[in-house]
Amino acid sequence: MHLVRYQLPGGRPVVGVRTGDTVAPVEGIASMAELLRLPLADLQTAVAKTGTAVSVDGLKWLPPIDGRGEVWCAGVTYERSRGARMEESTEQSVYDKVYTADRPELFQKAPAWRVVTDGEPVGIRVDSGHDVPEPELAVVANSHGEIVGYTVCNDMSSRSIEGVNPLYVPQAKLFAGGCALATGIRPAWEVADPKDLTIDIVIRRGDDEVFSGTTSTGKLVRDLQDLIDVLFLPNDFPDGAILATGTGIVPELDFALREGDVIEISIDQLGTLTNTVATGREPFAFLAEQNSEEKR
């Protein structure tokens, strides 16, 4: 099962439980933010109370985060990421130190309203020239800092901007279409071992497969709850938070995304996230409009 947000034609967003080809609304829960305010035990009880299931046909799927929810990221948590960052950077030692440090690198990626989901575009900056996707396990935490689920994240990144200077990370990471999440959150109680999941990525350009890669969350050097604890120590997340845990797949330096490329990321037990690459901020104007409509 997956926790999802969806819309019936002409209706308001609904929080539901998707099982196979049907989805049922969670009774008494109006938003994902409301659900993520609950302690884990209460959340489990809440999602067990669903209404009448309907077919998924014709539904619009929304990102599985809303309200004051935020997406954050952890950096340099895989050996491959450390190597790639050192290869591209003018300040190589910074990344080596982050990989082995007690304190992880954490940075804010996107507020809920800037997040795109499966089937929507992801963005590359007009002033970059060298952008790549970063397929990542994302940990979903409630407002109490408890891990309640997992989903798939594409943490889009500008290698050229970050490579010039590590202090440019915010510009390399925060831009229109820079954060994509799969439509569903797999509950934590249904995932026996989140540190034993296979992550796959395929990038297609027209009829050609131009890149593919595979890794395992077993190669992640950080403990998942430790990452959440560091994130929550100085911050309140009243509507929950999603933390992408870093990437173990980075293309070689001679590869860069192009407009129209199709990126497909899959994680065992969690699902698949597919997006087409768009350039600039204009293709993402719908996010602000969609957010305004949801607040009405």
Which properties best describe this structure?
296 residues, alpha+beta, eight-stranded mixed beta sheet, 8 helices
Describe the structure.
The protein is an alpha+beta fold. Helices cover about 20% and strands about 35% of the residues. It is built from eight helices and 20 strands. Strands 6, 7, 8, 11, 12, 14, 15 and 18 form an eight-stranded mixed beta sheet that branches. Helix 3 (about 80-90) runs antiparallel to helix 4. The protein is globular.
Helix content: 10-25%
- Choose one word for the global shape: globular
Beta fraction: 25-35%
**Radius of gyration of CA atoms, rounded to a whole number:** 18 Å
**SSE order:** EEEHHEEEHHEEEEEEEHHEEEEHEEEH
| Uncertain residue ranges | none
Number of helices: 8
Class from helix and strand fractions: alpha+beta
- Main sheet characteristics: 8 strands, mixed
Compute the number of strand runs: 20
Mean pLDDT: 93
- C-alpha end-to-end distance: 30 Å
